């Protein structure tokens, strides 16, 4: 049985799910919505590579703070650390559940207050942390496909505080990555893609799947909700890799947990 909700990276940012409950407290979003728009894939790819800013990103003016106005002022590992520190200080600050909760986790919209980067946080309970690390490892192997066949992946974090969410449980860990797009299952009715045609979509699905396979990764769960249409890139992005299989040659290169944490920007804890 599948443990996690699908299409987490493709949920609408205004999806209707009650905010987190922690004891008798409700998060700040009971009183106000998190209205920041998601960063573009090109923006996050530039951040990952310490390259040029994407002027088309809706948050680009915030990203320029402390920089030269052309390049990202920080790198992705610094962003991951900022987000971790921000959530460890206040779990409700610029962090809103997006809906579509699975049995053990949920997608969140997360904004780094210091630099304005807005991304998806794929939340998970502690009992599924190894599955989350597995998915992080696969994203590391798919580095060359990020921003073209899969979303840009930024890192994994442990949360010092627990985010209790009805229907999901106690969220203690997150993968941080770009918003993938709209699920294939709903694309035919999307006003954002009036030019959509089935033939183009099928070509793009094939292109993305072939790219993933060329990197020796087999998805193993290519259901429609794991296939997203990204209007920014005009590409299909594939998500949800915790069931993915690795080519035998990659299996011989499998990393231990410490290496995965290091590659994914996760701080070591004793």
UniProtKB/TrEMBL annotation:
Residues passing through the membrane, by range: none
User: The organism sits in which domain of life?
Assistant: Eukaryota
Q: Which InterPro entries match?
A: Kinase-like_dom_sf (IPR011009), Prot_kinase_dom (IPR000719)
Give the Protein kinase domain ranges.
93-270
Q: Which PROSITE patterns match?
A: PROTEIN_KINASE_DOM (PS50011)
- Cite a single GO MF annotation: protein kinase activity
- Which Pfam families does the entry link to? Kdo (PF06293)
Q: Which residues form a coiled coil?
A: none
Protein name from the UniProt record: Protein kinase domain-containing protein
